[in-house]
Specification:
Layout: H1 2-16, E1 20-25, E2 30-35, E3 40-44, E4 50-54, E5 60-63, E6 69-75, E7 78-84, H2 89-126, E8 129-135, E9 138-144, E10 149-159, E11 162-174, E12 179-185, E13 196-201, E14 204-209, E15 211-215
Parallel strand pairs: 8-15
Antiparallel strand pairs: 1-2, 2-5, 3-4, 3-6, 6-7, 8-9, 9-12, 10-11, 10-13, 13-14
């Protein structure tokens, strides 16, 4: 009887002093439980719902709370209260990372758009444009330098007072992207010809022939020489009964 009493006392002592811990882990966003001498624990939240969670071989268990607030963890006859933030730090960290990801994507999109615009502008400015246009008796020469030009010489045929001849324009220096124009009157716009250009560039000496855009009233076609006008013949109409 004495041995049985000692055994019962040891059981009571171990059950009273069984270790029971419950806490919230902010890194993982889970509630961790240690409950010795039990096979499961009961957890209830502020909504009044309770559920049973099985313990592992080490008398431990963990679970992720559905929302913030106070949770009661019961181990045998003992109970502990655990407070969970309204938005767990793990969720806040995940949300923060997601926001940073969207910000990075938006920044990359803006950078890509800027680079595309920069490349398009560079391509536009890198292309030289040389054009001669005629409207009525007014001629215009336009030169846009894609790259820097030096000692530019423009030769233009069919100019005022020089029908069948030419006139020249000299430009000492024209920076990349800059534009030069000249306007004058022409005597015979119907005989207009493209202008030519010679200049020194970074890659060496270049020669260009201008585009030609002509818009002037078309004259009436002249009668070919030697053509004879056909005589107009009147036809006689017979009278009735005659």
């Amino acid at each position: 009887m004495r041995i049985a009493g000692i055994f019962i006392a040891l059981l009571l002592f171990s059950s009273v002093h069984a270790e029971f811990l419950a806490s919230y882990d902010s890194a993982s966003g889970k509630i961790w439980v240690l409950c010795e001498n039990q096979s499961s624990v009961f957890v209830s939240g502020q909504d009044g719902l309770s559920r049973e969670i099985a313990l592992d071989a080490n008398s431990q268990a963990d679970f992720t709370p559905a929302h913030g607030g106070k949770y009661a963890v019961q181990c045998g006859k003992a109970a502990l209260a655990v407070t969970v933030p309204s938005e767990p730090p793990a969720m806040q960290l995940a949300k923060g990372r997601e926001d940073i990801g969207w910000i990075a994507i938006a920044a990359l999109a803006v950078l890509f758009s800027f680079l595309v615009a920069l490349v398009a502008l560079r391509v536009l400015l890198s292309q030289s444009w040389f054009c001669k246009s005629v409207e009525g008796n007014r001629a215009r020469i336009t030169l846009r330098a894609g790259s820097a030009m030096k000692n530019v010489l423009i030769t233009d045929p069919v100019a005022i007072g020089h029908s069948g001849g030419q006139m020249e324009f000299s430009i000492r220096h024209l920076d990349a992207g800059r534009e030069w124009q000249a306007e004058y009157e022409v005597e015979t716009p119907e005989n207009i010809l493209p202008a030519s250009l010679q200049a020194e560039c970074k890659g060496g000496r270049v020669s260009m022939l201008s585009q030609l855009i002509a818009d002037f009233p078309a004259g009436k076609p002249e009668k070919p020489q030697g053509a004879q006008q056909q005589p107009h013949v009147k036809k006689k109409v017979p009278k009735n009964g005659g």
